[in-house]
Amino acid sequence: MSIVLGPNRYGKAESRVVRIYRDEARHEIRDINVSTALRGDFAGAHLFGDQSKILPTDSQKQTAYAFAKQKGIVSIEDYGMTLGTHLVDTVEHIDSARVEIEEFAWQRVLVDGSEHDHTWIRKGQETRTAAITVTGRGEHRETTVIAGFKDLVMLKSTGSEFTGFYQDPYTVLEPTNDRIMATSLVAQWRFVGAPSSWESAYTAVKQVLVSTFATVHSLALQQTLYEMGRAVLEEFDSIVEIRFSAPNKHHFLYNLAPFGIENNNEVFNADDRPYGLIQATVLRDDVAPAPAEAWDSYTGLV
Ligand SMILES: O=c1[nH]c(=O)c2[nH]c(=O)[nH]c2[nH]1
């Protein structure tokens, strides 16, 4: 038996980059959290403390900030591809670079009914995400873009049932034909090729997801997720795979009987934990899988 170094990667996690565009009176803001992770020939650093092949994580961070100015942040997907490509292309012993990005959305403050030029409030909705993996060089170059969001909290007050489930001796759950269905959705979708606009693709995919959640009569969260994924793949040719992680945010009918009060699906206890956690992938069956590390989250944030 001998002890060897296994898979490894390193980078700078969670550089908080805020880019203001201030060339005109009406400013624009992009507020992101960037993580870079490099894979390559770094055995020397681990085995002997030889740093000669280590591009410091500090340099990776500096590049993230410098590129925010020099290349701009038109979309997190574009920015991530530029940064990831740069890291692989400039350092010869790097095999692949992964750039994970979260974007925090800001909404203009309204003053006298008009949008203010340079003041925003943070939007409390979902956090947009992107994970870009760049591998290889020249004709072996492969770039995988996975866009998505996390923490999109959705609730429908009817149109959801859960019946006919398998029953074992410990099953006490009552079937229901009318329940609240709620989740805090994480969704990630993989592109092959680039859409004409990353910005409008994001808005359009999110719209398909939320409208499918609303309109599908749900027999289970599993079925709703599959239908949401199918709708996205049917609508967007450049998306080949979508992955979901959906906590089932249980809303239990509160027992008002002790007070002689009828509860006709009107008062619920929003339970915090435990929660069901449903995860599913919906994909085209004729598309080559992404490189393994493309789905392999670095920070656990996306
Ligand atoms: O949509 C659901 N899927 C389940 O697998 C499940 N299990 C459970 O207890 N409630 C639900 N709801």
UniProtKB/TrEMBL annotation:
UniProt feature coiled coil, ranges: none
GO MF annotations in UniProt: urate oxidase activity
Entry keywords, A to Z: Oxidoreductase, Purine metabolism
List of residues binding urate: T57, D58, F162, R179, Q222, N248
Pfam families assigned: Uricase
Pathway field: Purine metabolism; urate degradation; (S)-allantoin from urate: step 1/3
Binding site for O2: T57, N248
Family (UniProt): Belongs to the uricase family.
The name this protein goes by in its record: Uricase
